[in-house]
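Hi R.,

Here's the chain you asked about this morning:
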Amino acid sequence: AREGVAHARAAGDSAVLPYVLGTRGVALQHLGRDAEAAECYQAASRRLAARGLRVLAGAYRLNLGDLEFARGRLERAERLLEGALPALDDGWPTIAGVARGTLARLRAGQGDLEEARRLWERAAEQVGDDDPLQVVRLQLKGALIEAEHGALEVAVERLAAAEERLPRLGPKIDAETRGLLQAARTAIGQRPD
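And here is the predicted structure, written out as tokens:
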């Protein structure tokens, strides 16, 4: 990924550079190099926004918001996710649903369970059945929200819905999804396997 950034810069290819930076951010995040990933997401989002590509800039703001949420930087995550929503709602509703799923977890953590549930319901509408991976992740986020607030019956239903869809993902079960699955099982009191 570093090589791709260097080639795009050397070629003066400002149109390709944001995508290369964003891809590098994803790779770095998967390697656990979160600070470097955050820099790449910020640069990609800034460059895309400067070119008027609001939806794509919003998608990288979502990546950065999810990363900041995972790092426990909740105020920053909240600003990034909320800032990404208008563009994503206009141009990429499925990914807007992903952002709302993370915002729902954030609101639940702040003690606003009613708002968390409202956001989760809206996220479920937006994600629909278009992206099986995002549907599973959203169900797992919903299970976590409910389990963390004592609504174990609803949490178990959402976990079961996610687990029912897991075989459809095949090799798409990545580290993020496995982490959400283990966290949901643990929150409900099941063995994380």
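One quick note: The radius of gyration is 17 Å.

Cheers,
M.
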